[in-house]
């Protein structure tokens, strides 16, 4: 009887150990499966950031270019914008977008004419007495057309020789100047030098153009605009 009881206890213990081992195995398999999916998704996300293709699934709700949890205020994913890798403040070397004048000058292949360049930035020009609206004839719409034509083939990065009509501070943003021209030219004053009818524009390729609206009595005539590229450095 004693031997039979011992055998029964040993058998029961073996069954208990077997059940415990089975439960551990189930938990382990489930855990490793979850870890595997997370690792797979993590590697997939990293791959997409490095230029790979494919669709990542799992706990990350966004993708490599979307608003997922991998994004940040200045990361390469999510809603953040990656910083420029060119070494300059911005890729266009636009003063209005935060570039310094050294950035602007270093990006140019042509020379800026200091007579039409604001004293605030090291030139000889400052706000004159008249707004663009004072130009003769069809000079204002023609000037706008010339600037649009330049921008269409070689984006304009800066405009020099334009000044806020209220404050007299330089206005260098192309879109602001173009908007004023298209509205008749009443919110921007021209420079003091060059009879107040010359603006210089810089482009993405490094060119500098001088645009001159000719006054009455000046060749080639009323309302015409002359465009020329400045000499190279």
UniProtKB/TrEMBL annotation:
Protein name: Flp family type IVb pilin
Taxonomic lineage of the native organism: Bacteria, Pseudomonadati, Pseudomonadota, Alphaproteobacteria, Acetobacterales
Organism of provenance: Acetobacter lambici
KW rRNA-binding (keyword) present: no
Keywords: Membrane, Transmembrane, Transmembrane helix
InterPro entries in alphabetical order: Flp_Fap (IPR007047)
Chain segments annotated as transmembrane: 12-35
Region of interest: Disordered: 68-98
Skewed-composition ranges (Low complexity): 82-94
């Amino acid at each position: 009887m004693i031997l039979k009881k011992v055998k029964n206890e040993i058998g029961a213990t073996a069954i208990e150990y077997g059940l415990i081992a089975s439960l551990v195995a189930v938990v382990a398999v489930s855990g490793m499966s979850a870890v595997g999916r997370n690792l797979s998704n993590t590697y997939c996300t990293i791959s997409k950031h490095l230029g790979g293709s494919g669709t990542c699934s799992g706990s990350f709700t966004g993708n490599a270019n979307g608003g997922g949890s991998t994004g940040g205020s200045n990361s390469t994913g999510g809603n953040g914008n990656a910083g420029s890798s060119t070494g300059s403040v911005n890729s266009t070397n636009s003063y209005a977008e935060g570039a310094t004048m050294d950035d602007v000058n270093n990006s140019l292949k042509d020379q800026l004419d200091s007579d039409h360049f604001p004293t605030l930035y090291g030139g000889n020009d400052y706000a004159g007495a008249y707004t663009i609206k004072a130009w003769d004839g069809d000079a204002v719409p023609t000037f706008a057309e010339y600037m649009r034509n330049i921008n269409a083939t070689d984006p304009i990065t800066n405009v020099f020789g334009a000044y806020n009509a209220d404050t007299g501070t330089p206005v260098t943003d192309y879109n602001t100047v173009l908007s004023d021209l298209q509205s008749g030219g009443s919110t921007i004053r021209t420079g003091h030098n060059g009879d107040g009818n010359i603006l210089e524009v810089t482009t993405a390729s490094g060119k500098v153009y001088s645009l001159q609206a000719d006054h009455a009595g000046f060749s080639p005539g009323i309302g015409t605009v002359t465009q020329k590229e400045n000499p190279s450095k």
